[in-house]
């Protein structure tokens, strides 16, 4: 087992960042384990949810942001619904994923690629084009046969369109993406400047 | 007028962030101040002697102490000045600790604020008038509300001390929760065997008057002189005739009544005696199930009763009792487990509460002490106990620890193994809280000797799978989810305030906290007193606690009552409202607003109507003074002039 | 009676894999006399990928659609897909809760969202704004062979603070709607256990395991059909049932219908109209309709017991 030196590795600014971005106070978690107990994904996680909460409390930024768990969480909200301390745990997990994404840490690359394929389709068309996402995903991950077994059913039952359904307000949606990217870029630049001066 | 001012360091509590020497120096410049000094601990004996000496030496006639809160030491210093020959109301306290040093870190600002507080207190003390208490006779009878173990202990101790006790119990028998328990931790004593003799003592004590199945309806009066209205709820059985033979219960055809003594583990008859050791051992009809009430015909019990005690026409009766002191031991309630939807309580029969399990373990319970699952009456082999079911759970409004669940769960796990040697018990826990004498050893025994498996983690979900109940929880020490297929699940549901606790508190003019537990006068030093003089607390009404703590509080409350009743007369606080009859216009707004019904209407000779304050009832709260449109009613020691003098001093500084 | 004048936001899935859900809802609404008002030129809500990547982006993508409803001057909007519902409602909730977040989101939009739109799932809209009594009215036919296990999925009523609908542990709304149209419902414990959600593509292993649990619990409870209110649940339980069988060694063959398809069958619409043929697992004779048999009025338990004693 890894020995953690809490004097040197506890990152207080990370705890603060999670607190600020999620609006949830990690200190309110008393480690009862209810989130882990109810989580349908515990068996797939490298760190169960309650341990992610504990790692945040201990300021273990890298372990948390490089974990698979934050990508495998499906935001099913069971943890949030049952938390006796009223911590919105699912929102904390989501926030961690946001931070990890921003920092370019993608421990579950396929999931990240799938999300990006989805958002690309959304950006291009204004709506989601299921076949397009699947194709985009396959091209990026090289999982060329993913869900090919479903093909016959999907085709015969005409469950999927072959043409994207583009909306009139595509440009409006694209402006959302553009303004969003600008905002995050500016923030990043400001942060770098501050770090530089600091 | 010569004012003496004593500025206390309170060790570093005040001197740490207030320049006390400078406060003393500045105080000496205030007109009227003849003497001012700072001292390490003014409340100490030499500190008090210093005040007494200064009064004599400098001929001081008014004293100000700048120190802690008056709640802490006002009485101490009033006695000091009185001993030195001054009226005790020629004294003021300036709170420079809680209001200054403890709340700010800036020495300069703190010092300035302390000087302002002293200036205001000096201005006030110069306006103070001498006040004198009057005394009134004390009724030496005692009311105890609640006949659980705490209330019974208080009643017995007061009665043994020679005072008549009126004991009011809401349910048909005394005994409370303890009467329902099978065994007690950590000694595995039979609960009813040790409680039974106390219950009999209560019944047989010449000085205890028991009102069972009764509730306090109204409380009037004040310390030493209370008038209590008690509602004796209709039992439909004349208890002066009932011998408790139980024949009615045997023959009653209505078998589906809810058994509140057994917490619904099994149904009971519509006419019933709650349990074999009940005190009083009398029958009572539950009209929601009795056919005579639901269908208008039956009458079996009336026919069968050998003493003709049945009376279907009985109505509630109100009786009045006069007492001088009140002990509130009204007990606790339990969280409705349906609030924990994920545990399926109320939906799945094999998910039960710990108190229900206690009745299953109990030899005089509905199953004669055989542990069976409610669903199919089979003996469970795997029993899972879930602690903190609702406790320490902000999300359902129970942020506190229920205090004794950890211990009774260990006890129930041990008893489970005793009853069924081939069974296996599991306990889900967050922390094992066992700080009492012999308690931790007991929880270790449950694990080491009785093989109970303790799992550190909360349970998230309980659901049925075939005949089993799947308990899904976390084992945070293993770091993963665990599942147990149980035959029976026992929930340690949270202890809550008793139903109706706030309503009773309002009748008694005592305060309750956000969880509806009653608030003691001081958490450390006045644990059984309330802020309403003459009303004392015992047992779980004040907060969750186990049997020894409840018994201890029962005796402590009784000791407080006995010390109070050792006096034939009590002195009232003269800092109460007073009406200036010349200024009063008789609008009587004060009569309406007084929360203590301490103001009455009085007709003077000549027909003028004015307000009149009953001295012994007035609690000195001051609501009337702010209501009075013409300033005719004034709170002594807090008159408009006195308060304005303080405000002036603050504005001028 | 609550307001029925709500917009209807179908969402992208209902144009593709979930088209049968859309078709059946439109027919049910028609039978119930409720006009379906679709916001013109709505865009994707952002769904899981948006909030997984960034909360602000997710808020803006959802809020654009709330602005469309705002422009229509309607009190609220209903969304049949729980993922859309959750995205729209969460955006609304977080903007209402935090002025800073609201301002940030509105900076990304052409037209700001004022925070006035009531967001509901279409299930909630039918259950609360139309009501079980109204729902029972158009029933013409019975489905005597069907025993339905309603499957709610995770986010229709969670987290309760945001969803504000039904019980977060033991929901009953879909049960009650299906009972109201005269179809038998079975109770089981996995009404809300996650089926694997959007991980069907990138992490099929997870979906297989989770879906397997849900299917087996429903079948164990005696159900021969599962009702869903979510296109993704439908996809995982139905379209992927063969994958589940292959991965887990099971041989499930249980049809998965939208609750609205079941309602539509009792209203007399044909399986084809309702898109039931688009399901992969063949419902066979379960969807055979019959005449309505008047139900025996259940006597309250107490009277029953009393009657037994009297005899």
Describe this structure in words.
The complex is a heterotrimer of chains A (198), B (653) and C (311). Chain A has 198 residues and is mostly helical. Helices cover 61% and strands 0% of the residues of chain A. Chain A contains 12 helices and no strands. Chain A is globular. Chain B is an alpha/beta fold. Chain B has 4 domains: 3-127, Rossmann fold, CATH 3.40.50; 142-233 and 316-331 and 498-565, FAD/NAD(P)-binding domain, CATH 3.50.50.60; 333-496, FAD/NAD(P)-binding domain; 577-636, 2-Layer Sandwich (Alpha-Beta Plaits), CATH 3.30.70. In chain B, 29% of the residues lie in helices and 23% in strands. In chain B, the strands form 11 sheets. Chain B has a 5-stranded parallel β-sheet, with helices on one face. In chain B, strands 18-25-19-20-21 form a 5-stranded parallel β-sheet. In chain B, helix 7 links the parallel strand 6 and strand 7 (165-168). The model of chain B has no long low-confidence stretch (mean pLDDT 96). Chain C has 2 domains: 6-125, Glutathione S-transferase Yfyf (Class Pi), Chain A, domain 2 (Up-down Bundle), CATH 1.20.1050.140; 134-287, 3-Layer(aba) Sandwich (Rossmann fold), CATH 3.40.50.11810. Chain C has a 4-stranded parallel β-sheet, sandwiched between helices. In chain C, strands 1-2-3 form a 3-stranded parallel β-sheet. The longest helix of chain C is centred in the first third of the chain and has 18 residues, at 55-72. Chain C is globular, with a radius of gyration of 20 Å. The model of chain C is unreliable at 298-311 (pLDDT under 50). The interface between A and C is large, with 64 and 61 residues.
List key phrases describing it.
heterotrimer; A: 198 residues; mainly alpha; 12 helices; C: 311 residues; alpha/beta; Glutathione S-transferase Yfyf (Class Pi), Chain A, domain 2; Rossmann fold; 2 domains; 4-stranded parallel β-sheet; 3-stranded parallel β-sheet; 46% helix; globular; disordered C terminus
């Amino acid at each position: 087992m890894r020995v953690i030196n809490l004097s040197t590795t506890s990152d207080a600014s990370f705890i603060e960042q999670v607190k600020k971005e999620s609006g949830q106070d990690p200190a309110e978690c008393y480690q009862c384990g209810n989130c882990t107990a109810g989580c349908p994904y515990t068996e797939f996680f490298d760190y169960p949810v309650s341990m992610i909460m504990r790692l945040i409390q201990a300021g273990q930024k890298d372990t948390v942001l490089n974990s698979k768990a934050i990508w495998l969480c499906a935001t099913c909200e069971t943890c949030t619904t049952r938390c006796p301390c009223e911590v919105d745990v699912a929102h904390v997990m989501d926030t961690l994923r946001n931070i990890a994404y921003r920092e370019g840490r993608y421990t579950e690359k396929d999931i990240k690629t799938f999300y990006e394929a989805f958002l690309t389709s959304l950006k291009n068309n204004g709506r989601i084009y299921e076949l397009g996402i699947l194709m985009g995903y396959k091209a990026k991950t090289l999982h060329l046969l993913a869900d090919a077994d479903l093909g016959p059913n999907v085709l015969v039952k005409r469950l999927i369109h072959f043409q994207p359904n583009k909306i009139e307000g595509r440009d409006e949606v694209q402006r959302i993406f553009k303004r969003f990217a600008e905002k995050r870029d500016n923030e990043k630049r400001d942060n770098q400047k501050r770090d530089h001066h600091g | 007028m010569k004012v003496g001012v004593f500025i206390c360091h309170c060790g570093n509590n005040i001197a740490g962030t207030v320049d006390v020497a400078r406060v003393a120096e500045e105080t000496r410049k205030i007109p009227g101040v003849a003497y001012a000094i700072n001292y390490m601990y003014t409340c100490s004996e030499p500190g008090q002697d210093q005040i007494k000496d200064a009064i004599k030496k400098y001929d001081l006639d008014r004293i100000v102490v700048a120190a802690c809160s008056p709640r802490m030491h006002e009485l101490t210093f009033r006695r000091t000045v009185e001993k030195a020959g001054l009226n005790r109301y020629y004294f003021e306290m300036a709170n420079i600790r809680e209001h200054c040093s403890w709340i700010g870190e800036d020495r300069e600002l703190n010092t300035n604020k302390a000087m302002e507080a002293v200036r205001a207190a000096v201005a006030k003390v110069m306006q103070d008038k001498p006040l004198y208490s009057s005394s009134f006779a004390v009724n030496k009878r005692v009311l105890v509300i609640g006949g659980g173990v705490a209330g019974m202990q208080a009643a017995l101790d007061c009665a043994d001390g020679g005072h008549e006790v009126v004991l009011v119990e809401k349910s048909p028998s005394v005994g409370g929760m303890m009467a329902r328990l099978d065994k007690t931790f950590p000694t595995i004593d039979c609960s009813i065997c040790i409680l039974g003799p106390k219950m009999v003592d209560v019944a047989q004590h010449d000085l205890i008057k028991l009102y069972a199945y009764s509730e306090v309806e109204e409380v009037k009066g004040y310390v030493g002189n209370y008038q209590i209205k008690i509602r004796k709820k209709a039992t439909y059985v004349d208890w002066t005739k009932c011998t408790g033979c139980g024949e009615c219960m045997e023959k009653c055809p209505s078998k589906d009544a809810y058994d509140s003594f057994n917490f619904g583990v099994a149904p009971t008859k519509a006419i019933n005696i709650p349990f074999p050791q009940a005190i009083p051992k009398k029958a009572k009809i539950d009209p929601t199930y009795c056919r005579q009430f639901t269908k208008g015909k039956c009458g079996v019990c009336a026919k069968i009763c050998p003493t003709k005690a049945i009376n279907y026409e009985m109505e509630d009766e109100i009786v009045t009792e006069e007492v001088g002191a009140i002990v509130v031991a009204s007990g606790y309630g339990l969280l409705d487990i349906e609030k924990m939807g994920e545990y399926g309580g109320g939906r799945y029969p094999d998910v039960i509460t710990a108190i229900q399990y206690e009745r299953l373990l109990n030899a005089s319970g509905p199953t004669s002490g055989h542990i069976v699952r409610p669903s199919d009456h089979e003996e469970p082999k795997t029993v899972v106990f879930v602690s903190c079911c609702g406790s320490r759970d902000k999300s359902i409004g129970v942020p506190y620890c229920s205090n004794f669940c950890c211990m009774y769960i260990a006890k129930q796990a041990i008893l489970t193994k005793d009853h069924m040697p081939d069974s296996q018990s599991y306990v889900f826990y967050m922390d094992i809280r066992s700080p009492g004498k012999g308690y931790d050893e007991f929880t270790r025994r449950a694990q080491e000797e009785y093989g109970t498996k303790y799992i550190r983690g909360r349970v998230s979900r309980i659901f049925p799978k075939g005949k089993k109940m799947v308990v899904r929880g976390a084992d945070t020490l293993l770091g993963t989810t665990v599942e147990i297929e149980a035959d029976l699940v026992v929930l340690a549901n949270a202890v809550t305030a008793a139903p109706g606790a706030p309503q009773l508190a309002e009748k008694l003019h005592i305060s309750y906290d956000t969880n509806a537990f009653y608030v003691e006068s001081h958490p450390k030093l006045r644990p059984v007193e309330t802020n309403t003089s003459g009303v004392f607390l015992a047992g779980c009404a004040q907060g969750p606690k186990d049997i020894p703590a409840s018994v201890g509080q029962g005796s402590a409350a009784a000791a407080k009552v006995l010390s109070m009743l050792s006096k034939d007369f009590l002195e009232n606080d003269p800092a109460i409202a007073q009406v200036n009859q010349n200024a009063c216009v008789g609008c009587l707004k004060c009569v309406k607003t007084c929360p203590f019904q301490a103001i009455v209407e009085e007709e003077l000779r000549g027909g003028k109507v004015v307000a009149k304050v009953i001295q012994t009832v007035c609690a000195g709260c001051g609501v009337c003074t702010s209501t009075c449109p013409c300033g005719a009613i004034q709170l002594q020691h807090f008159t408009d002039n006195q308060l304005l003098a303080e405000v002036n001093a603050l504005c001028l500084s | 009676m609550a307001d029925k004048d709500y917009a209807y936001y179908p969402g992208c899935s209902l144009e593709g894999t979930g088209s049968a859900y859309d078709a059946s809802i439109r027919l049910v609404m028609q039978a119930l006399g409720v006009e379906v008002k679709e916001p013109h030129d709505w865009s994707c809500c952002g769904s899981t990928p948006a909030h997984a990547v960034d909360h602000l982006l997710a808020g803006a993508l959802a809020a654009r659609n709330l602005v469309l409803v705002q422009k229509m001057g309607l009190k609220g909007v209903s969304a049949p897909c729980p993922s859309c519902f959750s995205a729209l409602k969460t955006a609304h909730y977080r903007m209402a809760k935090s002025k800073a977040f609201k301002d940030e989101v509105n900076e990304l939009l052409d037209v700001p969202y004022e925070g006035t739109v009531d967001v509901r799932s279409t299930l909630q809209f039918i259950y609360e704004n139309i009501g079980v009594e109204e729902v029972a009215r158009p029933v013409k036919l019975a489905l005597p062979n069907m025993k339905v296990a309603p499957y709610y999925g995770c986010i229709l009523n969670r987290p309760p603070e945001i969803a504000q609908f039904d019980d977060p542990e033991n929901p009953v709304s879909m049960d009650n709607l299906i009972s109201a149209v005269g179809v038998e419902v079975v109770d089981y414990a996995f009404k809300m256990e996650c089926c694997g959600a959007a991980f069907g593509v990138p992490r099929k292993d997870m979906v297989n395991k989770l879906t397997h649990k849900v299917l087996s619990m429903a079948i164990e409870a005696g159900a021969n059909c599962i009702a869903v209110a979510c296109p993704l649940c439908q996809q995982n339980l139905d379209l992927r049932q063969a994958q589940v069988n292959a991965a887990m060694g099971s041989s499930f063959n249980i049809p998965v219908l939208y609750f609205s398809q079941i309602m539509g069958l009792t209203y007399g619409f044909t399986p084809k109209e309702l898109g039931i043929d688009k399901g992969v697992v063949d419902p066979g004779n379960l969807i055979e309709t019959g005449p309505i048999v008047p139900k025996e009025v259940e006597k309250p338990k107490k009277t029953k017991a009393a009657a037994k004693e009297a005899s």
